[in-house]
Write a structure and sequence with these properties.
There is one protein chain. By secondary structure, the protein is α+β, with helices and mostly antiparallel strands. It has a single domain (8-304), classed as Roll (2,3-Dihydroxybiphenyl 1,2-Dioxygenase, domain 1), CATH 3.10.180.10. The chain is built from five helices and 16 strands. The strands form two sheets. It has an eight-stranded mixed β-sheet. Strand 2 (32-38) and strand 3 (46-51) form a beta hairpin. InterPro entries: Extradiol_RC_dioxygenase, Glyas_Bleomycin-R_OHBP_Dase, Glyas_Fos-R_dOase_dom, VOC_core. It comes from Pararhizobium polonicum. Keywords: Dioxygenase, Oxidoreductase. Residues 7-132, 126-271 form the VOC domain.
Length: 310
């Protein structure tokens, strides 16, 4: 069993409209936009990052907003729900706030003994807030969300699978342990993690495979401290038979990717160098930042990309 992985690093999904996406995560959920850049493979499309004040690993939701993209079809082989941690006693505040902003799919319930509020994102994205005691991660407070209610970062992701067996074995191999199983859901945890250490596996043998589109999670990234640890994980995965990409420089972290047995695309991302490598912390997410290979496109992209505010 590996010990390098410390929990979630980020979750990347797709959207149909950049302005709507930006408004939802900043104005409604109160997260900070920590980076405004573009898709490495499609520079005419934004890559937007939202998280806490610094974009700490375990807090960052990222999006590729493809203009007018059709909706995804929910199903197996994907992350179905991305879950955020909020303080105990705050779900009443969030229920009122989300309702006042016209957010749909609101449903309060208890899972694994935790109070939870499910809701849908602008593209039908599956989200939930879970009350967590003593989650002391730093928070970003803005747009009417106080520190008593603010999102702390990720709590977990829930993967929908036709058969959880092989994915569970993979997670155990990379450092997770089974915490509990009930009602067709197996919960795993990485010990000594970064506060975003839970993964739920939902077994749905009779559900069709999902089809990606707006509202779908593209991939889920797990956190390692540095490139040395990442290479150790890469070697172990390849020795086990996984087809893992070479290390890719994503400007704010280094990444490797591979497909998990149940169909979910996994990434292993480094905590270094971080989102302040090209912007002062006080101004994260304000300027359009371009990867080196796309910097010559700045005049075109500044005219083409939709304004996020105003």
């Amino acid at each position: 069993m590996l010990t390098q992985i410390k929990g979630l690093h980020h979750v990347t999904a797709m959207a149909a409209d950049a302005r709507t996406n930006n408004r939802f995560f900043t104005d409604v959920l109160g997260l900070r936009r920590v980076k405004k850049t573009v898709n490495f493979d499609a520079p005419d499309v934004y890559h937007l990052y939202y998280g806490d004040e610094t974009g700490a690993p375990g807090t960052v939701m990222t999006y590729f907003p493809f203009p007018d993209m059709g909706p995804g079809r929910p199903g197996t082989g994907e992350v179905g729900t991305t879950v955020f941690s909020v303080p105990e006693g705050s779900l009443g505040f969030w229920s009122d706030r989300l309702s006042s902003h016209g957010v749909t799919g609101l449903k309060a319930e208890q899972t694994f003994g935790e109070k939870r509020l499910n809701f849908a994102g602008p593209d039908g994205d599956g989200f939930a807030l879970v009350e967590v005691r003593d989650d002391n991660r730093p928070v970003w407070t803005a747009n009417g969300v106080s520190g008593d209610h603010a999102i702390r970062g990720f709590h977990s992701v829930a993967m929908r699978l036709r058969d959880e067996g092989a994915t569970a074995e993979l997670l155990k191999f990379i450092g997770y342990e089974t915490l509990e199983a009930r009602d067709g859901v197996t919960r795993l945890i990485v010990p000594g993690g970064n506060g975003a250490g839970l993964v739920d596996l939902e077994t749905m043998p009779n559900i069709q495979r999902g089809q990606q589109g707006a509202g779908s999670v593209h991939h889920v990234a797990f956190s390692v401290e540095n490139r040395e640890k990442q290479l150790e994980v890469r070697k172990a995965l390849m020795d086990t038979g996984y087809n893992v990409t070479p290390v890719i420089d994503r400007d704010y972290f280094w990444a490797i990717y591979f497909r998990a047995p149940g169909g979910v695309l996994f990434e292993i991302a480094t905590n270094e160098p971080g989102f302040d490598r090209d912007e002062d912390t006080a101004h994260l997410g304000e300027a359009l930042k371009l990867p080196q290979q796309h910097k010559h496109l700045r005049p075109i992209l500044e005219q083409h990309l939709a304004k996020l505010e105003g």
